[in-house]
């Protein structure tokens, strides 16, 4: 008994939306066939027509693949020549070199940026330090101004005393002792320094008349 050929039956159980089984086997052979004559695995196919059709389809796919590769190569070659390179390999090496160069430049730019950021931070710290020193100097200057104002007040008072002494020297030289001086200015004997200054100022305002 001749062993019957096993055909490819391209059905894997279908999908939920399509449960219909194919009407015929892969090679189109008609007739009743048992389950042992059908398979969906090419490893078990023995039908020469199925195999021949498959080989033809594979050859067509291979030819299409070659044509697509040739087309892509021609396009790549045209782009390569447009960029000034002789072939794709040269263009790829040049591209790799360019990428490496950009990476190196990026690294240099990153280093420079880090240096600039460090310089900026240093300048900010220096600015803050100078600001603090400036505030301290302003406070010190304010203290010095307060001291100068107090000294100027003392000097003004001393100058007024000098004016009083000069006035006394000009108007009462040779007029006797302190008692006579007090009498001529109508001063009590127990007058304090403040009262004496007021009395002298009053007398000076009258042109020296006691």
Gap between N and C termini: 170 Å
Q: What letter string, H or E per element, gives the SSE order?
A: EEHHHH
Please give the oligomerization state of what you see: single chain
Could you estimate the helical fraction of the residues in percent? 55-70%
- Average per-residue pLDDT, rounded, comes to 82
E-strand count: 2
- Cα gyration radius (Å): 60 Å
Basic shape: rod-shaped
Task: Give the percentage of residues in beta strands.
Answer: under 5%
Task: Walk me through this protein's architecture.
There is one protein chain. The chain has 210 residues and is an all-alpha fold. The chain has a domain at 7-63. It has helices at residues 48-82, 88-172, 178-184, 193-205, and strands at residues 7-8, 38-39. α2 (88-172) packs across α4. The termini are far apart.
Secondary structure layout plus pairing:
Elements: E1 7-8, E2 38-39, H1 48-82, H2 88-172, H3 178-184, H4 193-205
Parallel strand pairs: 1-2
Helix pairs in contact: 2-4
Task: Briefly summarize what is shown.
The protein has four helices and two strands; from the N terminus they run ββαααα.
Main attributes?
210 residues, 2% strand, mainly alpha
């Amino acid at each position: 008994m001749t062993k019957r050929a096993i055909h490819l039956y391209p059905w894997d159980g279908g999908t939920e939306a399509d449960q219909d089984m194919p009407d015929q086997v892969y090679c189109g052979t008609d007739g009743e066939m048992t389950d042992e004559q059908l398979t969906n695995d090419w490893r078990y196919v023995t039908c020469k027509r199925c195999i021949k059709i498959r080989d033809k389809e594979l050859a067509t796919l291979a030819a299409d693949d070659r044509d697509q590769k040739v087309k892509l190569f021609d396009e790549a070659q045209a782009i390569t020549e447009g960029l000034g390179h002789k072939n794709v390999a040269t263009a790829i090496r040049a591209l790799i070199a360019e990428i490496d160069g950009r990476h190196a430049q990026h690294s240099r730019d990153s280093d420079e940026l880090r240096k600039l950021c460090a310089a900026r931070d240093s300048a900010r710290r220096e600015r803050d330090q100078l600001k603090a020193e400036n505030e301290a100097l302003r406070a010190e200057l304010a203290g010095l101004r307060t001291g100068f104002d107090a000294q100027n007040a003392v000097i003004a008072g001393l100058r007024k005393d000098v004016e009083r002494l000069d006035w006394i020297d000009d108007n009462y030289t040779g007029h006797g002792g302190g008692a006579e001086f007090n009498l001529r200015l109508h001063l009590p004997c127990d007058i304090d320094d403040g009262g004496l200054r007021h009395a002298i100022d009053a007398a000076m305002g009258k042109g020296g008349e006691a």
